[in-house]
Amino acid sequence: MTQWRALSDAEVVELAARLRSLDCTWESGATHSARRSTQFPRQALMIRPRWDLLDTGFERVGRAAPRRGRVQDEQMVERVQLRLTDYARQWAQPLDAFARMAAALGTSLGEPTDRRPGSDAAIHWAGADTTLILGHSGSAVYLELTTNNRLAGDEELRQMDEDEEGLS
Prior knowledge:
Layout: H1 9-21, H2 32-35, H3 64-74, E1 79-83, H4 92-109, E2 114-116, E3 121-126, E4 130-136, E5 141-147, H5 148-167
Helix pairs in contact: 1-4
């Protein structure tokens, strides 16, 4: 049987510091070297991303192609999400890792700006332009850096969903 793995407290704190230092203004259409931060070299600590694809490489032919190219060049990366643990069948393993990592990040970064309990628990550390989020999805733990604009949009959609459920 394979052992379940999770990053150590020190690795999570270092990863959080590197994520917070990222400049999240790089464009999706930028060259590969322009998107890669020198503060965050790409190396496998233990993280196996579910995806790492920004463009399919297929080009649309016709009148819409030039317009699509302009829109794509103006798109910005709004979210970087990394999985900190293996997926688990047992609920206790990721929950314990989440609590341990939250304590380590709280010691390093200070008090969180927001805590969201529940099945998809999240702890936020807000900055001027971006927010660092430690999330627990039930089967794994994630660390995410997202722009505050994207986070506000997500919150607005969540509120609309809750309002719609309340009307039903």
